[in-house]
TrEMBL record:
Transmembrane segments: none annotated. SUPFAM superfamilies: Cryptochrome/photolyase FAD-binding domain (SSF48173). PANTHER family: SLR1343 PROTEIN (PTHR38657:SF1). This is Deoxyribodipyrimidine photolyase-related protein. It comes from Salisediminibacterium halotolerans. The lineage of its organism: Bacteria, Bacillati, Bacillota, Bacilli, Bacillales.
């Protein structure tokens, strides 16, 4: 007789141990640990998601005739010991958690446990096995997502011609994914999932037990079962995928969703299978539902980027969580929790997170990450905020994306150069600047867009590190060609920005 312990993000019938379960002999234990140390300041919608997914899957298991010991308590280890004691467990089976800290705690517990045998196997939900990553990302080579993505395309025969060439002649159509938004553009609404009785009950509990946590639950519409996730995804494919390719890098005020699929939560919670998702989008091209730039752009995110960042996490933890290559030490400003800032791009991006636990990848990278890098915010504070405030956040996702891609805190492991820019990029790719207190056309002074002066300040303070960088030399030529008057004006503007940042007046 064995017990299978399922963690909150492992609620899938495809988990290896579940596929082998004998309902007559084996059982499942699921634990809602609700201590503050476990959940810190997580967004309320994240708590609703995890608890609701768990309770729905508990009921699915029971309806299939499987015994489920569903426990609620302060700590995982206390509840697990109680389960082992009460059910006289001989063997505990579990799946390797994605979170490195949780994995190490479980391995430590398993080593110290004397009550029963512990069997651990790889979890379902990824296309590359954990054991492959040392070979795929060897220490002696520069890691590149592009070469990894090409390997995955070949391995799974995705968007390939019969003679082994990429469909359309190019591996990446990223250059065709960068259209700015047209005036008055709008996108079909996602097929939001209305909370059922179980989810409404969870929402009430979260609002009562975690009333001090950030975020709002009024607009919780995330899928919490595999069937809901499949329906939500299919609606995206049929009605919204077609415009995803052109506008995936664009930003529109009041619409953080646009044509984005928003299935990262369902993928990361294991409600959707990544290869199934990829094959469906591939078929959408064959059926004429979406152009190749939309289909390839979507597949690149799932087959390429999602798998790659997990590999970086596996290869570089636990030291990766403490990287700070640029030695940034400033505290994260309070408006990251409230959206109370006059900078409209930041207000729009943070408001989406407060209301929905979500914003799309360009808001995360080129607004929030860009600002945090230019302002010199301490990387761990930024990654902690992303981990706590996003509904799709998990440690393996957040650390490489935020510390590596957005902040360059790993010194170039994830990206060839810092993803920083002045306000011009945001103005080009959004309509945010049109209704901002700050003037995008002014480069210095109190009314100027703060991104401008912060960008030049960043280049100045990190000149020793980036001056000879092949992709940044041109910007340093511009830096060196400034007049004394321009230098003084930019430095004065940057100083004023940091003052207003400290006083909460930005």
């Amino acid at each position: 007789m064995a017990t299978i312990w399922l963690l909150g993000d492992q609620c899938s019938w495809q988990q290896p141990w579940l596929k082998q379960i004998d309902p007559a002999l084996d059982r499942v234990v699921m634990i809602e640990a609700n201590s503050r140390s476990t959940w810190q300041n997580y967004h309320k919608q994240k708590l609703v998601l995890v608890y609701s997914v768990m309770r729905h899957f508990r009921d699915e298991l029971r309806q299939a005739g499987i015994t489920v010991d569903y426990r609620q308590g302060e700590r995982f280890d206390e509840e697990l010991r109680a389960h082992i004691r009460e059910y006289h467990v001989d063997e505990l089976r579990l799946h390797m958690p994605g979170d490195d800290r949780m994995r190490r705690k479980i391995e430590q517990w398993a080593g110290e446990n004397q009550a029963c045998a512990v069997q651990m196997t790889e979890e379902y939900g990824f296309l590359v096995d954990r054991s492959e990553w040392p070979e795929l990302l060897p220490d002696e080579k520069k890691w590149q997502m592009d070469s990894f993505y090409r390997l995955m395309r070949r391995r799974f025969n995705v968007l390939m011609t019969e003679d082994g060439k990429p469909l359309g002649g190019k591996w990446s159509l990223d250059a065709e994914n960068r259209k700015p938004p047209k005036e008055g553009i709008s996108f079909p609404e996602p097929e939001w999932i209305a909370p059922d009785e179980i989810t409404r009950e969870v929402i009430e509990e979260v609002e009562t037990d975690f009333s001090d946590n950030y975020g709002k639950t009024a607009k919780f519409f995330s899928p919490v079962t595999a069937k809901e996730a499949e329906r939500f995804f299919e609606h995206f494919v049929e009605h919204r995928l077609a415009t995803f390719g052109d506008y995936q890098d664009a930003m529109v005020a009041g619409d953080p969703f646009m044509s984005h699929s928003m299935i990262s939560t369902s993928l990361n919670m294991k409600l959707l299978d990544p290869l199934t998702v990829i094959r469906r989008v591939e078929r959408a091209y064959e059926e004429g539902l979406a152009p190749l730039n939309a289909v390839e752009g979507f597949i690149r995110q799932v087959l390429g980027w999602r798998e790659f960042i997990r590999g970086v996490y596996i290869r570089r933890m636990p030291s990766y969580q403490d990287v700070n290559a640029l030695d940034h030490q400033r505290d994260l400003p309070a408006f990251f929790w409230t959206a109370d800032t006059q900078m409209n791009c930041l207000h729009e991006s943070v408001s989406a997170v407060v209301n929905h636990g979500y914003s799309h990848h360009i808001q995360r990278l080129m607004v929030l990450g860009n600002f945090a890098t230019l302002a010199g915010i301490e990387p761990k504070q930024v990654s902690d905020w992303f981990n706590e405030m996003y509904i799709d956040a998990f440690d393996w996702v957040v650390l490489p994306n935020v510390l590596g891609m957005a902040l360059y805190a790993d010194g170039g492991q994830m990206s060839t150069k810092p993803y920083v820019s002045s306000g011009n990029y945001i103005d080009k790719m959004s309509d945010y600047c049109q209704s901002c207190v700050y003037n995008i056309k002014e480069k210095t002074g109190d009314n100027a867009c703060p991104f401008h002066a912060l960008y030049w300040h960043f280049l100045e303070r990190h000149g020793e590190k980036f001056r000879e960088h092949p992709r940044m030399k041109v910007m340093y030529k511009h830096l060196d060609n400034r007049t004394d008057e321009t230098v003084n004006a930019q430095r004065t503007s940057a100083a004023r920005i940091f003052e207003r940042l400290e006083t909460g007046e930005l």
